[in-house]
Predict the structure.
Amino acid sequence: MSRSDKNSVAVFFSNGLGDHILTLPALRALRAALPSRLTLITGEGKARWILRDAHVEKVVQVAMTRPSDAAARLFPVADVVERIGSVDCLVSLVPWHSESLMLLADAIRPAWSIGMHQDFDFFVDARSVHAADRAFDVVKAFSPELDLDDFTVPVPLPPWSEDGARRVRDSIGPGRRILVVHDETATGSKQWAPSRFEETLRVLTHEFPELFVVVPSRRPPTFDVGRLGGNVASIENVSLAFFLALVANADYFIGVDSFGIHAADIYGIPALGLFGPTRPEEWGFRFSGAGTSLRAGESMDDLTVDAVLAAFRDLVAAGTAPRPRIAPART
């Protein structure tokens, strides 16, 4: 497909928090591929500022609802059409499809549409394994020569968040290595047993006395941080920007399949991702080469403390891995 020479392109994206980081390279690449004026249609929420790093000219936030556990969203199509005005093309970067998205594609005609579903005028059969690459497959329909790695750079952070993360690090003291732990996920099946998280951190802080563990979250941690001694601290009610800054300033990261592993990945932090029902080939590390994914089975119950300890020791010994890898679980 040739590059568009039209005047206005509407880009649709709305998905989970982690998907904002996974899709950001595709949105950056689309900005580079098209000389058009870009309008981003996205859901309401605190993560929208991440996508602004693609320097789109206009952002239209829309209330999205999920009728079930599926990823698809519904939204007021007439409101979106009125707010975006006349466009020449609609680009969908989401892997899901819904009645609302189909109606939006119909409503913009005679403008044309492109996305990962056959209801669009141009269907992109995105067969890439990793979620970040699937969104990028849509952009490559405009410019096949584009490479995702060329558009993978850290998310710029507000100065206040970086200052706050540095103050946390300074308060911990010199000569310490910071491990950020993220146990928070909206999907219960991706949660690791709190007792296992607690036992893992108890062993690690004893084995690595220079290690200081920070557990940032919007809600209280799932395990009792107070029982782990003075080398572990939780920070609750953190903002998204402050969370990203804490991860970006860490020495190591451990987290379940959630937003945090994608943050560690794009900032190049040596990290360990814990997976159960979801596949790390699809949702694991993709950007920096500093992450190791650990999956013992299709349930988080299959993931043992010994396996996580062994993987973290390997991470410390290896430093930054030369490429992303999926580690075999060891018991």
